[in-house]
Amino acid sequence: METFLAGLSETALAALPWLFDFWALPHQLPPEGDWRAWVVLGGRGAGKTRAGAEWVRAMVEGATPAAPGRARRVALVGETYDQALAVMVKGESGLLACSPPDRRPRWVAGERRLVWPNGAEARLYSAHDPEALRGPQFDAAWADELAKWPKAQQTWDMLQFGLRLGDHPRVCVTTTPRNVGVLKDLLGRDSTVSTHAPTEANRAFLAESFLEEVRARYGATRLGRQELDGELVEEAEGALWSQGLLDGARAEAVPVGARITVAVDPPVTGHAGSDACGIVVVGVVQAGPPRDWHAVVIEDCSVQGVSANGWAEAAVAAYHRHGAERMVAEVNQGGDLVLDAVRMVDPLVNVRSVHAARGKVARAEPVAALYEQGRVAHLGGLPELEDQMCRMSITGYEGPGSPDRVDALVWALTDGMILPARGQARPGIRQI
Fold first, then answer.
1. pLDDT tens across 217-241, in order?
2. How far apart are CA 113 and CA 102, in angstroms?
3. Which single residue of 92, 189, 304, 430 has CA 20 to 30 Å from 288?
């Protein structure tokens, strides 16, 4: 490398930082061929934005600053106008930062427009406003984070009708994949090509502590496969829950007056190789007429590889942290030893036992129905729990180990919503 650099003229050295083909990672370069859409799939921080910005540069710039390029009318479409401006235009990897001084476009704020020295233009559009794409026409487009657009199909359709200028209009899509129809349909088309990379592909530009933290926390989860590996994670066949359903059921806070329950699904043994002890906290509140309850899943504080005393301490800590009124614990495996473990930590905890008389799927199906009815929402920070939920299908659990977190969730919502609706809320062991 030193020999190569030493052989360059001062002009060539000055130009080198702006020659993206020289520095780019393989997934950041468009494939050869007669494609219409290029989809860059990648984990968080994998360099997708830089790939999109450099592709737009390659389309609009000519041999000299004033020379025309292959495209003169470009659509820049983001989730919102603000995000499109902050990421695609003004971001650290956006168009302004990536353009050399003599070819840098001028931002016209009042018109949401970029203008290059050669006369090429790019306008910003929002996926919240697909009708704004009705009428304008383009010879190129950059669509950022397509998989999280709020009106994805409508916006994408309007964009396709506008891509009608020039000899061969094209679009670059940069997105973290999600299991949404518009992305799956696009990837399945013969006119689409794609490149892919995990977050680690761009690790030279990422903090090592960031990679260590997110891999340790999310690496083995569905969210990690999606957000870090850049993998399009399909739903399990016959899944009781989907990520789309869960994403549409978010809560900002615990409702005032909610009755808090901590549910515990203890492991059979307590050592490093044991299944996790599922510990889930749920708040239930009456939202309308009698028996019209709604719930918020507050926290997943499950633990793994600990003794009975260890998981009991974690469950009791959650009980006090959230001001719970009740703890329910499955006793199929440990019998009275489960309750004894909790009472050894705090004898004043209101802990009741539940006994599984039916299989996991049979117990989970009524709880899944509550989600379909829009009666359960999640606070943020539940990736491991949601990963297990999306792997629960009508034929069983399709993940590794046991769905302990889901089991605890089912116990909590059954105790707080399903049994009271059946008029079966009562102390003592309940057969569920």
1. 777 676 787 888 888 877 767 889 9
2. 18
3. 430
